[in-house]
Write a structure and sequence with these properties.
With 232 residues, the chain is an all-alpha fold. The protein has one domain. The protein has 10 helices and no strands.
Length: 232
């Protein structure tokens, strides 16, 4: 087995293992105010990405890893990574149509999806313009990967909505998120470090949104219904 194949295999395996670890940690979550387990996976992803991005080790730095990966898979050129991040969002809304019970109704799940994506996007794009790291293909704004942070935020939202009643369905979004990150590297649009940090940001921000539940009691649809009844 070649070194290049091993690197790609272990890179994808790392995503899957950490995603499963995150799922397992959430299942065992307690009711305490501050939990440690939900932060292990995003911290590991972000820490690993930062290490790869800044290390000077000859066989661990991002440039060497990129060369090894693209040597094994030089002809991959697809725009599938532009669409995969949206699959978990579709799953989130499709779940109720399939008769699956979610944690929140349409308004709250949409609200938390919006906040998760908003805060994830702000953090991601602020870092992109602050760090000014070049992509492997020579274009700007590499770090971290916006596609990957978006995808993992989407997958995490799906997970929180269905984890209690349908854990397998809830966890399936991480497959598409992992595929997004892998394709960003294989398409030579991002370094491995970019997608690791992007994944960590997406997971962490979404966890915090569901932990604090901003504007939990705000539901404009209920107000409209109440006004309509008063008019009648």
């Amino acid at each position: 087995m070649s070194l290049q194949y091993s690197l790609v295999k272990y890179y994808i395996l790392l995503f899957l293992v950490l995603s499963l670890t995150y799922v397992n940690a959430q299942k065992k979550d307690s009711s305490k105010l501050l939990h440690i387990r939900p932060y292990i996976t995003p911290s590991t992803l972000i820490g690993g990405g930062l290490f790869l991005n800044f290390t000077s080790h000859p066989k661990l730095n991002k440039t060497y890893l990129q060369q090894q990966i693209l040597t094994k898979y030089p002809d991959i050129n697809t725009n599938l990574d532009d669409f995969l991040p949206f699959v978990p969002i579709g799953q989130m809304y499709l779940g109720n149509a399939l008769g699956l019970n979610s944690k929140n109704g349409f308004v709250n799940k949409s609200k938390y999806l919006f906040f998760s994506q908003l805060f994830t996007s702000i953090i991601t794009h602020t870092l992109k313009r602050t760090t000014q790291i070049m992509r492997p293909d020579g274009t700007p704004h590499a770090f971290p990967s916006g596609h990957t942070s978006f995808a993992f935020s989407s997958a995490s939202t799906l997970f929180y909505e269905y984890k209690s009643n349908h854990p397998i369905y809830a966890s399936s979004g991480f497959i598409f998120a992992t595929g997004t990150g892998a394709l960003r590297v294989l398409n030579n649009r991002h370094w491995v470090s970019d997608v690791l940090v992007g994944a960590g940001i997406g997971i962490l921000v979404t966890h915090l949104v569901y932990h604090f539940e901003p504007l939990k009691n705000w539901n404009p649809l209920k107000r409209k219904k109440t006004k309509a009844r008063l008019v009648d």
